[in-house]
Amino acid sequence: MALGGTMMCAVAQAAAAQSPDMHVPNGHVEGHIVTMQKLDWFLAAQLALEAVRSCAMQGYSVTATVVDTTGHQQAVIKGDSVPLQSLSVSYRKAYTAYSYGLAFNMNTTSELIAAKVTGPANGALNTIPEVLFVPGGVTLRRVSDNTVLGGIGVSGAPGGEKDEACAQAAVQKYKSDFR
């Protein structure tokens, strides 16, 4: 028990020694207030809706999920006849595109796969519960400075490449709003 208390004290001291202006990914610290950069709810919903609409125009019923800069679901639109697992899969694709797009400076889950970020050196990445390295996720970036604002994932079309194309179509339609 003493070791736990000592460890907590050391962590608290280290945290207190940090500058209040330290770097926060996709955010800004001023004093003890953190401001995060992310899309507003309306644009997130429009992106998800456009991805579902884009796939529907091709005859595919899908689910689209947008995650914010905390990795949480910000908007979800489910097509009329998608299987239950598409909800989880679309979230995991969005989460992977956001978190690993940020870490590896890539824009899609397909790019992450092609770069073999889950190869022998990073094999443990496949064991993280919310991570899914399959096509269908796109990183959302601010146009002006490339800041990562979240991710969008699509699931339900016959093949991840089709899912990703619908996500890309949504991003292209609204990219000018990523300011």
3D structure, described in words:
This protein has 179 residues and is α+β, with helices and mostly antiparallel strands. It folds into two domains: 2-35; 37-177, Beta-Lactamase. The chain is 41% helix and 18% strand. The protein is built from five helices and six strands. The protein has helices at 2-17, 41-56, 85-104, 109-114, 160-174; strands at residues 27-30, 33-36, 63-67, 73-78, 137-141, 148-155. The strands form two sheets. The chain has a four-stranded antiparallel beta sheet with strand order 4-3-6-5. The protein has a two-stranded antiparallel ribbon with strand order 1-2. Helix 2 crosses helix 5. The longest helix has 20 residues, at 85-104. It starts with a helix and ends in a 5-residue tail after the last helix. 39% of the residues are buried. Mean pLDDT is 85; it is low at 1-17 and 19-23. This is Heme-binding protein. InterPro entries: GlcG_carb_metab_protein (IPR052517), PduO/GlcC-like (IPR005624), PduO/GlcC-like_sf (IPR038084). It comes from Novacetimonas hansenii ATCC 23769.
Explain briefly what this protein structure is.
The protein has 179 residues and is of the alpha+beta class.
Ordered list of secondary-structure elements with their pairings:
Layout: H1 2-17, E1 27-30, E2 33-36, H2 41-56, E3 63-67, E4 73-78, H3 85-104, H4 109-114, E5 137-141, E6 148-155, H5 160-174
Helix pairs in contact: 2-5
Main attributes of the structure:
18% strand; 5 helices; PduO/GlcC-like_sf; four-stranded antiparallel beta sheet; alpha+beta; disordered N terminus; 179 residues; Beta-Lactamase; GlcG_carb_metab_protein
